[in-house]
Amino acid sequence: MNNSKTSKYIYRLMILFLIFYLTSLIVLFFLRVQSLVIAEDFSLRFVIFLIFIFVIFCMLILFISFLFISNQLAINISLTSFITIFLLLSFELFFENTRKNADLRLIERYKVAKYQGIDFDKRSSLEVIDTLNKNNINAYPNLKPKNYIGEEFFTNIDLLPLGGISNSFTIFENENGKYPIIKLDKFGFANLTDNYNSSLDIVLIGDSFTEGYSVNQNYNIVSNLNNSNLKSLSIAKAGNGPLTQYASYIEYVKELKPKNIIWLFHTNDFNDLKNEMNSDILKKYINIKNF
Predict the structure, then answer these.
(1) Which of 23, 93, 100, 175 has the smallest count of CB within 10 Å of its CB?
(2) Tell me, what's the pLDDT at 27?
């Protein structure tokens, strides 16, 4: 009798563990989907939230119902649950291991390019950089200021890098089949022409869109302006939000006194601003005069 009761509890615990595991997967999926939805699209985010609540409610009902099922049904469900858990965990471990060794976005882009008959460079960004260095091209990963926000080392020394590695090369995202090879100027920005000592017509401030992400450097905005006889500079960096952009203006543009400043915003800048508000260094640019 005691063995029967023990088995009954074990079976139910296995079922409840499966429900808990599935619920955690749903939560992770919900958070992932939410992160992919544009922050300003409140209607879509609200629909996703309602679906999430409905699914969690169904899981709760399922949880309660399993407390009152018969022993035989509990045995059958528990065995099925054990097999399901084993398969799900195996798949998750395999997927995680695969994810660590591949850029999933790159895989999806390759599939689209193959379907469209476009040549596609399947190498990872680090493989491309390694090849460039073997060919005596001084190349490094594209460093972004947002990656340093909150880093203890930079917080302790009250410093935040705003550009990349000066007078070097980097690469941008492979969205069109090839990795654009980018020459960085003396301050680490994507400028082919050094106009810092010139009378500037235009300075561009912004994020990856302004920087010319995934575009051949000869065809980005600042190059087109210079080719049109408008002396221009870009101090844009991928991931820059309003505070980082303002800090870049103070550090690199203010003293140049350009005739025009084109400051480009995108909807994702509002999400970047949330992260930047955690930076004491960036907030000093707006709270402390002449910082």
Answers:
(1) 100
(2) 67
